[in-house]
Amino acid sequence: MATVHPALAPYVRSLVAYDVAFDGSGIHIGMPSTELTWVLPLDEPLAVSWDAAPETRTSGWTSVSGLHTRAAAVHHGVRQRGIQLALTPAGARALWGVPAAALAGQLAELPDVDPGFGDLPTQLGERTTWRARLDLLEGALLQALRRHERPGPRPEVARAMALLTRGTPVADTAAEVGYSRRRLSTLVRDELGVAPKVYQRLARFGGAHARMRHAALTGGVSVAAVAAASGYADQAHLAREWAELAGCSPTEWVRREFPNVQATDRRAERG
């Protein structure tokens, strides 16, 4: 994971340069979250579709997805190299000049969203080191920040998003920021493209996904433990959410994404 310039920190949650080898061609699951995803492949165009909807497949040198409630299928060959960024909703306005709502549920190429980035893939391909590529990308992002100079979400909406992310009930969030529940719902939809409860659902699922991924990278996974730490009523609740949002069970996700890791549930732990 690369260090993000301080001026970009409110807008870029993570920036990862990746070089991954696989046993063969396959599909990586792009998980729903409260972040917008931006991928810049280096060796070949990136093919992405919504899971179980191959007719939505797109292929390009820059892939952008807004907030979504179904998994994306990222098609890969034996090797993938590129740069992936996770943007905050405020980052969509600051770096692309559009609210996150404009991209909700969408798979797109960035030049269609902001033509100012049209030459970036070619320029990245011409660089021969990761340092040179990351420096180029940072410069392009800082230039975009100056180019757009658009205000972010109104402060009360940003405050509401923070409260929802922490699990504050929608009614309490509306009261905290001084809006009716209906007014809050309208403002959040206008900014994000999803209702407050959906955004809160994505936030909780994103936390579970991060915990599951961390557990898979550091040792065996207990689905029950992840469910408890992420605020789900029980393991079955998390399993239902995982199936709806990721398109498979938690244990299947671990098997597909981390084939050498053993995921357990209560039944397995009982023997």
Automatic annotation (TrEMBL):
PROSITE patterns registered for this protein in UniProt: HTH_ARAC_FAMILY_2
Pfam family, one: HTH_18
SUPFAM superfamilies in alphabetical order: Homeodomain-like (SSF46689)
Domain HTH araC/xylS-type: 164-256
Keyword annotations: DNA-binding, Transcription, Transcription regulation
Classification via Gene3D superfamilies: Homeodomain-like
Entry-linked PANTHER family: BLL1074 PROTEIN, HTH-TYPE TRANSCRIPTIONAL ACTIVATOR RHAS-RELATED
Name of the featured protein: AraC family transcriptional regulator
Species the sequence originates in: Nocardioides renjunii
